[in-house]
């Protein structure tokens, strides 16, 4: 039986060794909270487009990180942030035109009812607020999430992030459902997933909590990437909404065009979420995030508690956010994600067809999951082999991480500006790495 892995433990440096040089310095500074990628960590000095440059001069193709979504150090984002920080940076308790310019631009991407947006600094804060709003609106406290979900790091959000919990059991008000793949639900994922969510609602009712929210990342990133068939999420979401619960669409991973066929991941499923949370790619690295909700829902929450976020929605964040939206449109990055993503998926599927150890390629646009299995051809997830593949790809100049319940899924998530030649380079490196 494969061992269940925590998301932060995947492909991480073993801090118990103490490290040397720059690694030791980091461990001395961050202590037990330090999590470094790779068994031999990399010191980075610069990045541009889809490429990162290490201290030793090595250039790496970055398939690891969905934050610099329009490309590392994109000149338009850099210029917008630099100009605004040189002019004015303050909080949302003053009227500053660019903040409303940004909110209005963002709202053109959201469906009409979600006309209030609260700006935060992290996806965790956005999800924390979303759960609190859902509780205020529904009068209930229970939350349903997938079994390997990660939704952030506040106390409240850690409780609904099973993949972050190493020892603590889930609290009574949180019920998990298996990730929406064929392994758990067979051919009919939509109805199987709906049945699991309905059973979770019943459990929450029995426990006296009721269902305040079903919170899901529609690409199921930390669960191992489950995108198809588009539409499978709708019946589960409808069941929750019919019962008075809210659907919180965590768009921190799939949002801002990554899935290619839609701007938000939930759109692929034909859902009208009650709340949308967003972050990571929103500022292309400038720390910004947000929660979009209906005015009456936000008002219900604010009747009881005020909400203010010192840095959330500051004018520099607004400048970064506006530049990101502009670049996505001007450079056609959503369409690029669709085209280059399809090419990448086809290439990886070809490698899979020729290898016993690549058991499945899934995903949408530039967000793919690649399952790696045991040498005996049984298809059992193989986390040890996955780390070997990750290390070999690093040696070939490609950065890639793992996800999934057993840490045996490669999480393929390059910047949206990836070109065909870069996609081919990844396929070649992957093909070499799976062979060893
Ligand atoms: C799906 C999802 N939601 C929320 C978060 C939390 O975002 P942040 O790290 O900005 O707090 C993450 C971070 O990895 C995430 O993957």
TrEMBL record:
* Entries under InterPro entries matching the protein: Aminotrans_3, Aminotrans_3_PPA_site, PyrdxlP-dep_Trfase, PyrdxlP-dep_Trfase_major, PyrdxlP-dep_Trfase_small
The yes or no answer to whether the keyword Transferase is present is yes
Domain of life of the source: Bacteria
Is Transferase given among the entry's keywords? yes
The UniProt GO MF terms for this protein read: pyridoxal phosphate binding; transaminase activity
The UniProt entry, under PROSITE patterns, shows: AA_TRANSFER_CLASS_3
Cofactor(s) for this UniProt protein? pyridoxal 5'-phosphate
Q: Which Pfam family, an example, fits this chain?
A: Aminotran_3
Checking CDD domains in the record gives:
OAT_like
What keywords are annotated for this sequence in UniProt? Aminotransferase, Pyridoxal phosphate, Transferase
- PANTHER family per the record? ALANINE--GLYOXYLATE AMINOTRANSFERASE 2-LIKE, PTHR45688
Q: Which family does it belong to?
A: Belongs to the class-III pyridoxal-phosphate-dependent aminotransferase family.
The name under which this protein is listed is Pyridoxal phosphate aminotransferase
Species this chain originates from: Salipiger bermudensis (strain DSM 26914 / JCM 13377 / KCTC 12554 / HTCC2601)
